[in-house]
Amino acid sequence: MFLLAITLFTIGSIICCASHGIVSMLVGRSIQGIGGGGILSVNLIILSDIIPLRQRAQYQGYLQLCFAFGSNIAPVIGGLIVQKTTWRWLFYINLPFCAISLATVPFTIRYTRPKITTKEQLLSIDWPGIMLSIASTTLFLVGISWGGTEYPWSSATTLCPLLIGLAGVLLTVIYETKYASVPFLRMSIFQNRSAIAAYACTVLMAFSVYATAYYLVLWLLAVKEMSAVMAGVCELPLGLTIVPISGATGAAITRVGKYQWAIWLGWVLSTLGMGVMVQLHPDTSTVAYVFMFICAGIGLGLLFNSLSAAVQAISPTKDVAYASSMFAFMRSLGLCLGVSIGGTIFQNFLQRRLEHYGLSPEIAKQAQVYIEALRSEPASPEKTLAKQIINWAFQMLLATLCGISGLGLVISAAIGRYSLDKELDSQHVIA
């Protein structure tokens, strides 16, 4: 499955590289997304299969370091690509890494194959449940992203995908519980309130991380009027704080054998960090906002590995692979919700502020286009007012994220203590 995921990601990247129209681009991105999602899930599953639970947090820290490093340099490299060369390099850049992975994985991970054919393995996959889950989640996200921006919350255009998506999620749970012969969604991993709380915190953590990272760049572009490259560079203090803190947290959890302290401390510092960043304004100095980014990064960094360790410690040994996969899914769901709902929150507050000053609320629907046009305008009282309006909407988004972090702290109180000293039962070994 790992090789299949890498292959799909490679094929999707190649299609995007060669794309000359929207249809081929969408096809390529879809295939790339399926492969990328598989890579994120399967590497956690393999890691949970070859590393004892007590040491797993440390190795997951290394994995998170790689993931976070890539996420942090991406805005800088992306900005350079946009400014200096063709957009196709956004996809060309993936190919050397794909080639290295395809060449090395078969020789570094040995696997005891079950005595069934590939066809039987494919038939055993819960395709109906997976398709129903994907369709439901997509419809829900579409409804959320449209609400209050493209269409009113009360309109049928917003409510239909939202309600159908929620109904689809409910149907997925019913199907997986009662009808699926080999369910992809193991309800046993949601066996108690600790498990439910840990997964809920994972969604909220990813929501906070990606909404913050995505819209901080927008603030730097619009309010500070930085170039795309400089915005990526100035956001680095957030990500470069998350990276070492995440790795150090994994090592500390391995050493002390406990994870609750990191979860609780992470949410406390994340809440404080978001609260401090609400004070951002057009005249905030570089030293001040770098300090704010670091405060938030410390809190969010503490959560990455501690929540992963909690999910696996709470899960029954036989379901650890499913728990790891669900952790990856919840993290990805939080990413999608953070970007889409974060955009909805920002645009709704932007509309409200525009109306307050007697300006057209339609501007909020094309916020990025408006910001790009604003950046090219000479200094004037009108431009200053526009930057203040955008800054206020961004402050309201950060206030919302502060509340979400506070909610995460409350929910995390339900996460109990479970032993990290569990026996390892594996079909994989490192060569």
TrEMBL record:
Keyword S-adenosyl-L-methionine attributed: no
Keywords noted in UniProt: Membrane, Signal, Transmembrane, Transmembrane helix
GO terms under cellular component: plasma membrane
Pfam families: MFS_1 (PF07690)
Positions of transmembrane segments: 34-53, 65-83, 89-109, 130-147, 153-175, 196-222, 228-249, 261-280, 286-307, 328-350, 392-415
Cross-referenced Gene3D superfamilies: MFS general substrate transporter like domains, Multidrug resistance protein D
Membrane topology category: Multi-pass membrane protein
Signal peptide annotation: 1-18
Domain Major facilitator superfamily (MFS) profile: 1-384
Localization in the cell: Membrane
Example GO molecular function: transmembrane transporter activity
Descriptive protein name: MFS general substrate transporter
Lineage of the species this protein comes from: Eukaryota, Fungi, Dikarya, Ascomycota, Pezizomycotina
